[in-house]
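Q: Structure tokens for this one, please.
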Amino acid sequence: MRFSRLFLNRPGHQSSTADTEVVIDVLRSFTTAAVALARGALAVYPAADAESARALCAGIDGAVSVGAVAGGDPVAGFDFGNSPSALAGVDLAAKSVVLSTAAGVRGLHLFRETRHLFAASLVCAKATAEAIRAAGGEDVCFVITGEWDDRDGDEDIACADYIEAMLLAEPAAPEAFAQRVRQSDFGARFVDGTWSNLPIADLDLAARADLFDFAMPVQREAEQLVIRKSSCSP
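A: Here is the predicted structure, written as tokens:
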């Protein structure tokens, strides 16, 4: 198995020939998606932008809209912001969630034609490694979405390092990777407490390695991407 990294927000870093793309957004898109699935959601639909998210919600009975703009502020008119802690107490049984975010979701759409596509975060890292192995891909590319001009993205790099270590059967103490999430540039903004839409409860959730026992393979149904939880090969 071969590994590579792609940094979504770097110029010239938006192409890959890997047969397996693992799009990582620890803070917070795919922690939010994982919590939604754990709370009973039937599926999470990653929408390319807020407008398409609204249109998709209109066509799904009882759909719940979740999303944020770049920087983390909620999308106006959506049911929830991109906040895993906000969803943690919500009963989403038999609901469909439509998710629109500026980083993780954009990465999924960029690599929508990939043979094996996964949404990943630290809360489901071990299950993701197991699903990648079961899928049988030979070239795994980790797509880092959290690095920006003012952010080091180490929360996502840490998750990639952890998953890669497990795939290589190398020693990997989850606590060390969780600490990197907390100490990342973006993680520090949650700790700071001055950003009203970046609650510390979100960071506390996102930094819990292997909280869930399912992976999040991404499938295409007609023209729409769909995330459903899977504890086995996608």
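A few notes: The mean pLDDT is 94. The CA atoms of residues 3 and 186 lie 25 Å apart.
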